[in-house]
Amino acid sequence: MTAQLPDLNPAQRTEVELLARGKQDKSRTLRDLGHSETPEAAHALLLRTGVWSEARTPYADRLHATTTPLDLPVPPFPDEPRVDLTHLDAWAIDDEGNRDPDDAVSIELLPGGLTRLWVHVADVAALVPPDSALDEAARSRGATLYLPDSTTGMLPDALVEQAGLGLHPTSPALSVSLDLDAEGNADAVDVQLTTVRVTRVTYTQAQARLDAGEAPFVALQRLARASRTLREAEGALSIDLPEVRLKADEHGVTITPLPKPEMRFVVQECMTLAGWGAAIFADDNGIPVPYATQDHPTRSVRGESLSAHWARRRTLARTRFQPAPGPHHGMGLDLYVQVTSPMRRYLDLVVHQQLRAFLAGADPMPGRVMASHIAQAGLNADATRQAERASRRHHTLRFVAAHPEREWTGIVVDRRGAQATLLIPELALDLPLSTSAPLGAELRVTLGDVILPTLGVRATVR
Length: 462
Description:
This protein has about 450 residues and is an alpha+beta fold. It is built from twelve helices and 18 strands. The protein is globular and about 75 Å long.
């Protein structure tokens, strides 16, 4: 019966595609062909008949996460007073090929043994005031959509080109400073509108400069280690699970392990410090911002095995965003905001809008208005993250299907009765498996019976 599909008229084919994309919930065509009227059944039929290729992913459509680039006019930066920090070296340290550099770091040695850490963030809120057309469009997206075969920005590419750090000789920024002692304690924090001069480097290049003993990078490493030690003493959790870089197109999929040089940890810790510093500044000045909070872990998990890290992640409650400060227990911080990605995450942009209003002597959004923005953007960002996860799994299974005879090493990271969860580090892929193997066991498996519409795959122990 499926052979009839190529002879269907365009309207009937469109009907099946709409169901596969989650744009309608019924299909007379599928019903007449004897198929169930589900997005998965429609997807399977389109694959079998060659209407869709295996590269086609419908998950963003189903979750209402837009894949259409935003094309709105971007205003120029306003002419306003800024602190000139162009005398400082500043580095935007990212993965190779990063297209939206929105944060950078600088370091200064101060009298009395203090070190001033600067985290500069692209001043996106200068171009995207609350309730502007750009703001409403960004809120409707919630976050930038990163798929293995495409990226759809939360904001227009033209804004990224205008505001991205290191894309021009100097850049406007919102800069968070923390004066830290040798143990990582903060003596003072501040937030200012600045002008910075930023050099872009990759993690690999930054790691080479650290390994060569260049003083600024060694100082950043020292601060990051001290900060991490302090947070761990307050209960911060360390979770280290495999990550891969996944790229896909019509011709195939490539999967490579994500390198984890220490400079990646250093930059992450600097961004965490910036979020902590911005939260302190907002709280001290009574500025309503979306504080990121998290409850205590449900239980304590010790050990550094993959299964321990997997279990530790499962103990974490979901991060909540609220107008009032509260502890983020997973980070070991008494208060925290996300502030370093305003081009990619809407709630970071809200933090910038609120801080910028205060710095300009204007009234920030009232807490109740901001709370409604948090709720709307949170739903849209959730859809974006779900679409990313489903699309990554889809293309990972495409890669698996292209290597049917290959053996993979998997680790049993969880058990529920006779069922286990197997994690294949080389693919960052987890899947269910019926096995009596104990937690932490290493198994050699082949992967087959890939079913893309249901994102299913079967593991067979060798």
